[in-house]
Structure formats: C-alpha cells, structure tokens
Design brief:
282 residues; single chain; alpha/beta; 7 strands; 7-stranded parallel sheet
C-alpha cells in the first residue's frame, strides 16, 4: 500500500537488477512515491516493458542496459541517470548473479575459482562500482541514501553457497564502512537483510519443492514475506523518514533468523532452475 503523501518526489533513484523480483517491486513503489526511477539490468525487453508500465501509470522512468560485472558499464549507468534527470539521490544495490549461483556454487573445496569470481564480480564489485560512481553525484545535491539488498546468508550459514554468502557478508561490512566515510557528508548507507518472499520466483520454487518447501515453512515464525514488504522498507530507507538510520543492517525476515536452519537449496532447487533457464545476456 502506497502512502497518500509521496515521500520521494523529485528524487532520482537507481535500482540495480530491476527487471524482475525485488528490483521491479522497489522500482514501481519508488515511482508511485514520486521518484524518477532509473531501471537497469541485462534483459532489455523486460526493462523496456517495466519502463513503459511505470510511464503508463504517470511515473517517470528510464531503462539503461548494464552489465554489473563491468566497471565501465556501471559508470555509464550512473552517468546516464544524472544526464537524464539532473541528479542522483538514491542507489539501491539489488543486482545479483543468480544464474551463476545456480550453475557455479559448490562447497569451497569443490568450487572453481572462475565461478567464484563471476559471483563476486556482481555481488561485491558491482556494489562497489555503483556506490563509487553514485556517491559523487549525491554529494553534488547535498546527500543521499544507499540501500543494499542482502539476504539471510549474511547472518546464517547456508550450505553449498560460498560465493553468495561471501557477497552478502561483504555487503554488511561495506555498508558500515561507507556510512563512516560519508555519513558526515549527508549520505546514509544501510542494508536490508531479506527473508523468504513468496512472490519472488526463486522463493516460490523453494516453497513448492517437496523437500525444501516443508523445511522452510517449518522455520517461519510469522509468515512468508511479500514484495510489498521489501518495497516498503526500501522506501523508508530511501526517504527522510529514516534520517537517523545509518550504517545499519535491518532484518526484514519475519523473525526467521531467530531460529531457522537452511536446507541445502543448491542441491534441491538452484541446480534445477539453472538447468531449465539459460542465462540472458544483453
């Protein structure tokens, strides 16, 4: 549900990985809150479709094709956002190499360096590059907000996912570090540790799995999350309402990490998903 008072009017928001799932939901919510939205991802057709969807609803949006594993591409993304709307106020680091996670993740002793590198290029370097180029633009307008989208893997051990876990753990440390450097200059940096969201395609696959589904359902303390839950928290962190929140890791998981244990999702779910859907490259 969107508030009657729009909280992001006139602000330019970049949402990486916004052609589906969390990113799509946050982009739509930001547009409804009055923001200029810069969509980005590898899937040009999906990006253009969401751009048209937001514009048809009266919002302002532009899609920029980007490869988050390439520094020049990320730099061009931020430059395009500033050129299109004249400023950058909010960066949401949401993109993640889920195709590589499905095809490359193994226990450390079994994982090859190339696969590990592909995951870190998006999950660590992509966050670093997006922040590196967005921060100077934010400083030009007196401040801004960086929202990093993390997961349960940042705070709990997850079987057979060293690359993904390393990315999400690094995200928390980088959040605190950037908050120290740029908080005094008006830029807040926070991380959302997101739980299981049924509307996300991957989580839906987990829920329907005959083994993983019951294990995950048994661990819920309240309920599964929704895309509105994620978009609502991201809007709060992007807006002035969270002006006293900086360098924080906020768990939005229904209490899941208070008691839960992960099944081996790589073997049960991710491998089948990777085999059934070839990665899209733009």
């Amino acid at each position: 549900m969107v508030s009657q008072i729009q909280r992001l009017v006139g602000r330019t928001t970049i949402v990486t990985g916004s052609t589906k799932g969390f990113g799509h939901a946050m982009a739509r919510r930001f547009a409804a809150e009055g923001a200029n939205v810069v969509l980005c991802g590898r899937n040009k057709a999906a990006g253009r479709r969401i751009e048209d969807e937001i514009r048809a609803g009266g919002g302002r949006a532009v899609f920029v094709a980007v490869d988050m594993s390439d520094e020049e591409s990320v730099r061009d993304l931020v430059s395009s956002a500033a050129a299109e709307f004249g400023r950058v106020d909010v960066l949401v680091n949401n993109a993640m190499a889920m195709d590589h996670i499905g095809s490359s993740e193994r226990p450390v002793a079994e994982m090859d360096s190339a696969g590990f590198d592909k995951i870190l290029k998006v999950g660590v370097y992509g966050v670093f590059w997006a922040s590196k180029y967005a921060i100077p633009e934010m400083l030009k307008v007196g401040g801004g907000s960086i929202v990093n989208i993390s997961s349960l893997a940042a705070v709990a051990g997850v079987p057979s996912m060293p690359g993904y876990s390393a990315c999400k753990g690094a995200m928390g440390a980088l959040t605190r570090q950037m908050a120290c450097d740029y908080g005094p200059k008006g830029i807040r940096v926070n991380t959302m540790i997101c739980g299981i969201v049924l509307a996300d395609g991957l989580a839906a696959a987990v829920e329907s799995h005959p083994v993983a589904g019951p294990l995950m359902a048994e661990a819920q303390l309240t309920r599964y999350g929704t895309l509105d839950d994620i978009a609502g928290m991201a809007t709060y962190l992007a807006s002035d309402e969270s002006g006293f929140v900086n360098g924080a890791e906020l768990r939005i998981d229904g209490g899941w990490t208070s008691s839960a244990r992960f099944p081996n999702l790589v073997d049960l779910v991710f491998a089948d998903l990777a085999a059934s859907a070839a990665p899209h490259r733009s």
